[in-house]
Amino acid sequence: KVLTATHTTPDAVDLNRLLQQMVMAGCSHVFMETSSHALHQQRVAGLHYAGGIFSNITHDHLDYHQSFDEYIRVKKSFFDSLSSKAFAISNADDKRGAVMLQNTKATKYFYSLKTVADFKGKILENSLSGLQMMINDIEVHFRLIGEFNAYNLLAVYATAICLEENKQDVLTALSVLSGAEGRFDCIVSPKDKVLAIVDYAHTPDALLNVLATINKMKKGTEKIITVVGCGGDRDKTKRAVMAAAACEWSDKVIFTSDNPRSENPATIIQDMEKDLSVSHKKKYISMVDRREAIKTAISLAQTDDIVLVAGKGHEKYQEINGIRNHFDDKETVRELFELLEK
Does this model's pTM top 0.90? Predict the structure, then answer.
């Protein structure tokens, strides 16, 4: 059953109502993304977790938490609250991975692609056909793409093992897993073989990860053209950082609207532009209309070039002045491929 949600983690009343419905339906496990807002607002107070996973922490939500240190403190409070009967899994390759677990009573486990860990992974091959990996000396092929997904696979594998699942059954299940909608979704134009990638990357770190993955998969002289914007009424400090990241890792960048909400989209774009270096300023153009920005990116692309449409991913709307207008990046890309190749 799929329910529409307005928050990453529901409020306490809705959350407990959902948990009751799950119990009545016979569910045995609940896997939940527990947001920093939910922790700070006590939405999950009174719940007893069997375990928790820390993947990474990046520049986000500072409009709410005011400082990165406070954001870290709130995230860490989740692991501090775990009981001695629980497990805590952390990414050893994140520089705050050890800090997150330093005061937990839970049993600690770490996963890594770079160092010794309880759950050790190694990427043997990373291509558009998937990932070939070693996980604790077992070689497996996964359909998922990119280093960021290698980390996700390790985290899920570690969790399943901590829940006492059979490791071979877990790896078999993960090997046929498709990616989440809006995460590195690939669409190839029929005629010119331009590759469009639609991704939810809406933080500096997420955008860097996606662009780094694309650059590693390039076979030669393909150009990377990135379409990106920043959400309105949200953390303004990340706008210039995201713009610089896009320019650094792309051959051409088009700044455009994301979900401007109550802000003027042109003002958001100005925030993105203002601290760019001289070399970065030569790489970008700005277009408020998101559809026109995507159309321009596709028009600029030559055979085998790569167009990244970042920021909205799975979303089927664009929020402007309190109204959610229908807008789907994947749908738009497909329509424009068909239109421009006639």
Answer: no
